[in-house]
Amino acid sequence: MMNAATSNIWNLKSIISNLKSIIFVVCVLVAGTAHAQQRPLVTEDPETIGAGRVLLEGGFSLDSEQSNFVNGLKGDIARLATFGASIGIGATAEVQIDGGLYQRLTVTERLPNAPLETITLLLPGDRSSSMEDLIVATKIRLVSETASRPAIGIRFGTKLPIADPEKGMGLGTTDFFASFLVAKTVRSVRTVGNAGLLMLSNPVTPGDSVSALGYGVSIARAVTNAFELVGEVNGRLSSFEEVVPGSPDSRAVLRFAGRYTYAMLRLDFGILAGITNSDPNFGISAGATYVITR
User: Can you say how many angstroms the Cα of residue 127 is from the centroid of all Cα atoms in its chain?
Assistant: First the structure.
């Protein structure tokens, strides 16, 4: 009798353990299609959100000592209502909309010889606020990941000038970009790489544009079933900033973050350090991502 009872108890524990494993695997498979958006990272994963799903994200960031040599301002930028939405339009494609409802600039230094200082800048004081520029993009997964090959995709889109250049919050230009995306997971580490062409408008001479190389490499390491550490280097290389007055300069940012996932909700907190003179010295960010299945 005791042996039978003990055996039943162990069988029950085994069933419960198996159920937990099955539930966890299902959660990973359902939420796994959402890892294509890697907030707060910028490097884009080629995997898409999936058909019938909508990914919503929001958060805030604080960047210290951000320099803008075109309009001659250096200061701290607080982005208090960043948002993003990715809509799955099929198994291999999605549409993305990213922007910000409110950003505030606190000027700490006026930089000399700025091309736009006397053209468009109307900022008598040391503080201003505005919406952020809007980015509309489409991402397409070309090849799915297998055990022997990486996932491959492309992303292309445009940046629309929503931020007010008179307040020093934007350049008032429309930019275009196209990127090649690749990613591979080995055990608990996922590596993502981006390389692409950026067509950036010159704010000093409207109608002119210069090209730049966009790049990014990110690594995500799963620490537990729900928590992971991520890092990236992301930026652009421009060879025209010394030749064409007012042309966009090179940028590079090193970013580290932690992400915690519970069901369809993911929370994140990150820090960044700028590499070039145009990037912020230091920054922090926090936010959340949620997936809706239609």
Answer: 26
pLDDT tens per residue, range 89-121: 999 999 999 999 999 999 999 888 777 665 566
The three-state (H, E, C) secondary structure of 114-183, written as one string:
CCCCCCCCCCCCCEEEECCCEEEEEEEEEECCCCCCCEEEEEEEEEECCCCHHHCCCCCCCEEEEEEEEE
Residue recorded with tokens 């008032």: 172
pTM of the predicted model as reported, rounded to 2 decimal places? 0.82
The answer to whether 134 and 174 have CB atoms below 8 angstroms apart is no
User: What's the rounded Cα separation, in Å, for the pair 74 and 267?
Assistant: 30
* CA separation for the pair 75, 151 (Å, rounded): 39
State residue 173 phi and psi, 5-degree precision: -120, 155
Euclidean distance between CA atoms 106 and 133, whole angstroms: 18
Q: What is the set of domains in the chain, with CATH numbers?
A: 35-293 (2.40.160.40)
Q: State the amino acid at position 108 in one-letter form.
A: T
CA distances from 282 to 172, 222, 250, 255, 258 (A): 25, 25, 17, 10, 17
